[in-house]
Amino acid sequence: MKTYEAGNITLQRVREYVWEIPREGEMNVPARVLASESLLEEISDDKTLEQLKNTTHLPGIQKYAVCMPDGHQGYGFPVGGVAGIDSENGCISPGAVGYDINCGVRLLKTNLRYEDVRGREEELVDALFDAIPSGLGGGGVFEGTRGDIEAILEDGMEWALEQGYAVPDDLEHCEDEGKRPEADAGAVSQKAKDRGKEQVGSLGSGNHFLEVQRVTDIFREDVAAEFGLREDQIVVLIHCGSRGLGHQVCTDYLREIEQTHQGLLNRLPDKELAAAPAGSQLAEEYYGAMCAAINFAWVNRQLIMHRTREVFEDVFDRSWEEMEMELLYDVAHNIAKKEVHEINGEDQELYVHRKGATRAFPAGRPELPPAYADVGQPILIPGSMGAGSYVLRGGEQSLAETFGSTAHGAGRLMSRTEAKNTYWGEDVQDELRDQQHVYVKANSGATVAEEAPGVYKDVDEVVNVSDALGIGDKVARTYPVCNIKG
Description:
The chain is an alpha+beta fold and 486 residues long. It is 34% helix and 26% strand.
């Protein structure tokens, strides 16, 4: 059997693209990495494998801990990590969800072609940047009262529909129809609500963005037709999460769990994996607060999409309905959800933790909206500003291999500090514009440097691994036209 040595960790090759860290010591299950050898080299450059191995110590974890091909070091739990944990006898871990609860992506379709935008990129990127709040701190499309925030936390996209920021079709094309019914606004601290009050409808900073793209490749004609995608079509990808509210929810519960469940914490190899035992008061409260933050993030992306429709109306002088600006799908990639999966031949309810991983359900799974019940769930995989992004659909092997999950992006190669020391933001902008006809606008050159194309793994290789394993099937590829960042 072929092995791969990464420091003091030995991985065994199960089959092509599947590597396993065998169970030993106090590990409850083995750990698996889904990667090509070149991606595995990059994954083993930091603490990703050590963090993945640590994850297997969480009580109630089933089958194996999994790292996607875009995996990299995170807070306790690796980014690109997936863990299915028994919802009755296991635990739930805020660190295995992440600080930006329901960071996710949505893709907005149009009937515009690339030729309709060519020559107007600067006008469009300027209009989008002026209209859509971005960067650190406050400022959003909507500034509400405390009552508004409570309603957003409880009702998610239903609130946006009632307020005129959405149409019914938007809800029908969002994961969970844009509402987690288990949401409990009462479990969200006032500090978190106050942080979110002025940030509804804002991109934030870091790797969050809004990108106008053109469809360059179609890989599965039948699925692309069901998704409403065709070559040379203009689409808009929006990537952001729950802003300061979600960060505060994670912070609040990590601190409480560390204090209340010290006994469990002492049994874990990393305190950043702090977890609340299933059935405990804190587990229930965190789940309710996390679901509320999930709802907030869906509304956040919805309001950005609403404003995007308005900008396109102004720039192209026609209604968004005429331009057929319809939501393809919205997917979350920092989340823990109660889902039923087959374990040892029997259905079992799990807390499926996906941190920097995307749900990838195949056709027939009951959670899918009617539009995609027979074709499979759309999956959105952003690349860097200088590379393509991808639309996939849930693969037939995803439930057996990854608890119905796949990658969430290209995955970072460099830290933000290293990126800023390597790249100069203005140079990156100039090169993208002059050499690749990609127009980027951001609040600072530092933000552009942090997100330079060279900072990321090869998204093509990440997606090819997913496709080869049958966990997420390639449908279409897109390429940037213009991009705004915080």
